[in-house]
Amino acid sequence: MGPTTFIPRSHTAQVHAKYNDVPAGRDELLRQSPSVVALLNAGDASLFDSRSLHCGGANRNTDGEGTTR
To answer: Helices in the chain by DSSP H: which ranges?
Structure first.
């Protein structure tokens, strides 16, 4: 799994209601919201509100490291 992507300020009930409006609301929200990618080093940790919309990205490492856990 690659880096985690977060949508800042997406922890509110209003944002979750829009996200749950499938598919029109969700697609619009994801297309228009700025996102932040957490690029962490080995041993780093990310602390965030679990209500924030987030997802794991693809592992695109090409040097052979980080491809297994």
So the answer is: 13-19, 24-32
- Degrees (nearest 5) of the Cα angle 38, 23, 2? 20
Task: Give the separation between CA 64 and CA 7, rounded to whole angstroms.
Answer: 29
Q: Could you tell me what percent of the chain has a pLDDT over 90?
A: 62
| Phi, psi (degrees; rounded to nearest 5) at 28 | -65, -45
Omega cis (within 30) before 23: yes
Backbone angles phi, psi at 36, to 5 degrees: -130, 130
pLDDT-derived band at 8 (thresholds 50, 70, 90) equals very high
